[in-house]
């Protein structure tokens, strides 16, 4: 059992040698990073969701529409331009866009995990799983060419 003050290298020493620092998954629903845990060592290959809530709320047509809206808005702008996630939410949910912002951020996190877009704050790329406050979206390395 490790203490909370354990050095990261000590923690890594307790992980199987087949795992690396980068052995993590992205939740298929919310796009947050799922870190490897010892209790999952026998079922790691089947882990797809970060929580029971995400497991219950599968992706639907509106989630895919949000992803398409983000890509479409970025396609219409200059290659270096950014968009606010609320623009995509307004395009899909004109009357209730503000209540759908978390869902829009989830779509952005999924696209970030695929390398299609990048999430930024004040012009700097941020970790989509931990970003708090206003974010902007821009084209990523794997953004589809027109």
**Helix amount:** 25-40%
How many H/I helical runs?
5
Specify the biggest β-sheet: 4 strands, antiparallel
Which class do the helix and strand fractions yield?
alpha+beta
Separation of the first and last Cα atoms: 52 Å
Helix-strand pattern: HEEHHEHHEEE
Beta-strand content bin? 5-15%
How many DSSP E strands?
6
From the alpha-carbon coordinates, what is the Rg to the nearest angstrom? 17 Å
Largest beta sheet: what is the strand line-up? Answer: 3-6-4-5
Using the alpha-carbon principal axes, give the shape.
globular
Q: How confident overall, as mean pLDDT? A: 85
Q: Segments where pLDDT lies below 50 for 5+ residues?
A: 6-13
Key features?
32% helix, two-stranded antiparallel ribbon, alpha+beta, globular, 5 helices, 146 residues, four-stranded antiparallel β-sheet
Q: Could you provide a short overview of the structure?
A:
The protein is an alpha+beta fold. It has 5 helices and 6 strands, in the order αββααβααβββ.
3D structure, described in words:
By secondary structure, the protein is α+β, with helices and mostly antiparallel strands. It is 32% helix and 13% strand. It has 5 helices and 6 strands, in the order αββααβααβββ. The chain has helices spanning 8-13, 52-56, 61-75, 85-92, 101-113, and strands at 24-26, 33-35, 82-83, 117-121, 124-125, 136-139. A 4-stranded antiparallel beta sheet has the order 3-6-4-5. Strands 1-2 form a two-stranded antiparallel ribbon. It starts with 7 loop residues before the first helix and ends in a 7-residue tail after the last strand. Residues 6-13 have low confidence and may be disordered.
């Amino acid at each position: 059992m490790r203490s909370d003050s354990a050095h990261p290298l000590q923690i890594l020493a307790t992980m199987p040698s087949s795992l690396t620092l980068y052995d993590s998954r992205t939740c298929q629903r919310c796009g947050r990073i799922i870190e490897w845990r010892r209790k999952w060592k026998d079922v790691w290959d089947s882990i797809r969701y970060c929580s029971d809530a995400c497991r219950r709320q599968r992706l639907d047509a509106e989630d895919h529409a949000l992803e398409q809206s983000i890509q479409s808005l970025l396609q219409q702008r200059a290659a270096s331009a950014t968009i606010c996630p609320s623009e995509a939410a307004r395009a899909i949910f004109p009357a209730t866009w503000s209540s759908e912002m978390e869902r829009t951020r989830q779509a952005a996190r999924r696209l970030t995990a695929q390398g299609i877009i990048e999430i930024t704050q004040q012009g700097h790329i941020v970790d989509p799983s931990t970003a708090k406050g206003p974010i902007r979206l821009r084209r990523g390395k794997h953004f589809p060419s027109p």
